[in-house]
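Human: I would love a firmer grasp of how sequence relates to backbone shape in proteins. Take your time, and here it is.
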Amino acid sequence: MMSRPILCSLRQALIAKHRSQTTAGLTLVELIIASALTSVVLGIAFTGVVSAINANRLAELRTNRRIDLSRAFDFISNEIRMASRINQSATASTQGSVTVANVAASAGLNLSELGSYGTVVLYLEIPIADTGISTCSDGSVPASVDRVVYDIRPSDSEWIPPLSIHRYGRIPELNGTVDPCGEPSSSDTLVDAISQQASTQPTCEAPGQLVGASGFQACVNGSQVDLFLESAITGVESRVLNSTASSRVGHLVGNSAGNVSGGVGALPSLVLANDRSGDEVEFSWTWSGATGTTFQLQEIVQGTSTTIYSGTDLSTTVTLANSTGTQHCYVLTTNPETDASLTSNQVCETP
């Protein structure tokens, strides 16, 4: 029989051997398998985090695009409602080959002030309320009308491509008023990321005139404008806004300084109507303003405007020229010698 010391020594040796086996390091194969499993788990977790970040980013971009486009749409619509003339001046209208840029130039606007403009879509004459200022600090006469131009052009490096809408005109104050002695801004980008091509081409029924290009177009019929805006960012979304805006300015009353007096609600109205019999067309108009007002009836044929009546009567008769198939359009203006003159709705006839 073994002695007690020997048994104790054997027991201690077995325990030490067992401990050494259980505490030994992992093998290379075990390390590779563990690393692979860890990589898979981390990869799945990382993909989920990236997807969540991208989803949030896309949602934020969509929201920002909708907000920006809606603000621009509302701003343009509001200026249309305040305009006394839309895509026409005292001497020209968008007919035939006459573009909106031609109309703006006919009103005395130097197009070079617009910078590198693209396609001019809207020309607006917006009356400036009488501020009581008779002379500006530089000695000039305060403006009674703000001439506003909207065009669509390629986006520069600071704005999202492909196209941007630019505005030329005086910048309204926070309360909506305009400084009649202020200088127009020629570098005001209203909204960017306008689509290069409209997903659906806007329709425009005669006698309306479709103007514009790409994602910024308008159907202009006298004081009514069907406005179309489309924004598109690759990989995000395409968003389309379209609605109708009409001028709420019935008429402008000029005072001795040529400024506009009274608020929009106090302005009288001018409406042109016609009654045709053969080649004879009788034009009549309703006028709720001051008596003794001078009216001028303009005939517009293929973009050329001709004064065919001037006087204080409320009607006149016109014989259509023998030019079969050529559309004749007519607009009426009041106080044509002042900047505060009003242009009526437009009516058209074809001989």
Remarks:
- The two ends are 139 Å apart (CA to CA).
- The mean pLDDT is 78.
- The chain is about 25% helix and 35% strand.
- The longest helix spans residues 28-82.
